[in-house]
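Appendix B: complex inputs.
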Amino acid sequence: MTAATHFRTCPTTGLKIDRSAENLIKANAVVAVVFLLIGGLFGLSIALTRWPAVHLLPADWFYLALTAHGFDVLLAWIIFFEMAVLYFASAILLNSRIAAPRWGWAQFWLMLVGALMTNVAVLQGNSSVMFTSYPPLVAAPHFYLGLVLFAVGALIGCAVFFGTLVVARDEKTYQGSVPLVTFGAITAAIIAVFTLACGAIILIPTFLWSIGIISGVDPLMYKLVWWGMGHSSQQINVAAHVAVWYAIGAMVLGAKPISEKVSRMAFLMYILFLQLASAHHLLVEPGVSSSWKIFNTSYAMYLAVLGSMIHGMTVPGAIEAAQRAKGFNKGLFEWLRKAPWGNPAFAGMFLSLVMFGFLGGISGVVMGTEQINLIIHNTIYVPGHFHATVVAGTTLAFMAITYLLVPLIFRREVMFKKVAQWQPYVFGLGIAGISLFMMGAGTLGVPRRHWDITFADALSQFQFSPAAFLMLALNGLSAIVAAIGGAMYIIVVVCSVFLGRKIGDNEVVQLGPVSGAASAAAVARYGNEGTLKIPGTVVLVAVFFVSFVLYYFVNWKYLAEVWPLK
Amino acid sequence: MSGPQSNEPGQPERTPFFQRVLDNPFLLLFLGVTIPTVVYLIWGIMEIIQIPLASP
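Resulting structure:
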């Protein structure tokens, strides 16, 4: 195959696009969306079961759905999409051919077979061990085998990504440093290597235990190593969706980072410290010392949080600087008022940024603090927190960039533009409600993973406050709104990809108010915006800090009320 | 393109040490895997294996 047939030139951005990378991006993104649909339906059924007045599923189906929901959305949807992001951020943004495309397909098929195998095991009904699958709960052997295949496939994807970086460097397809979006993808891939290795390390002996070759798996050892995968997999998301925020800001508005050095330092904080936050899942385990807990959470994790707070300033700061350069200089917030709120890529990205920071970020620090974690440990507050990070943060950001990938990679026009415009708002509203109301119910003591808080047929009774029931009802209503937003996304994306108008080989697509060349210059090259005049962002950051400090100390006040000192 | 290594003609500018670190994905990969392996996994495993077994 000649170089000419191997590549096409994007008429919008001028970037050289390796057709093998493009096909891998398409395959991974399509499968990701299918798992989002499956996992989302399971999620809706769970929320409607936890709404006491509806109580949709019987107990055995509730735990089956909870297991499937956890795997399909926390691992399958997210990591398939992240594979697409890795190939995009390496081969496409670096103008390079992809290294070892056959290994790329090995990644895809191993992950797909693994994901299907785990789903089959769950649907057969004898693997309702939930996402964490803690021993001594045991699932069918193919549940673990599927997870191991999935993890190995994703590790191969990371290897192809790193190989592509080497190819691009050796073939000099870029000069100087890689673009910031690619650096964010490198961060995600590094975290993924640790994450997936932890998964393989602990799930292989668990698989051997499930087929009777070894006698048992120590539950605490399992928890320690498993959370190296379970929580770090969500840290891949954080690095990937922050990279996506920068990418969307650059592609829609031509926004360059305020400071490449500062943003890269923030990603470095992730590389060095973010994975240690896994320890907060073991904060109430008596088998590990306070020194281990406090170092891994209260010291190391705060450095990673610092990284997130830096991105929380530099992403909107880059957008403000780009908008001000276009003349939106009136007052503090004209740049924000006149942002392209009707563009679903921008709207989804900005909603993701705000909700990730205010809901997911602040609650995450509260959960990572050993003392105040005890107020909400193992309550429904925990899924409230991670729905703010993984769904409002990652899923919304991935949905947002899909609206750019459909015309650029799938070469199809986005259909149902009005539906697409409303989709991020509907989904964002629903998921904000889910997060807030689950956190509210958790603060009132409602446990997570509990089929029936009315204890209708239990020997021991406990009466939760009426407000807890209200919170769960509002959570159910919010889940319906989020499901509508999710359905809007899937209808728009599936119809566009399969039925949308084909974009011509030389047809230029309008991604936002700037030209495709400006988009490409901002997203695929190293460079700073070159200004620090971002007063609106400074005000937004100040509001965030005040909220953060208030909420943090309110939780210490709660703790003082739980254990009064006399 | 305004790369970080833009040079004056005839005067090659030395890339700062820290930038060379950030430009080396395999060094970052080593750090990003080693630190959590030591601080989270190995430290945690050592503490767990030191828990005395219950006697019957």
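Residues 1-7 of chain B have pLDDT under 50 and may be disordered.
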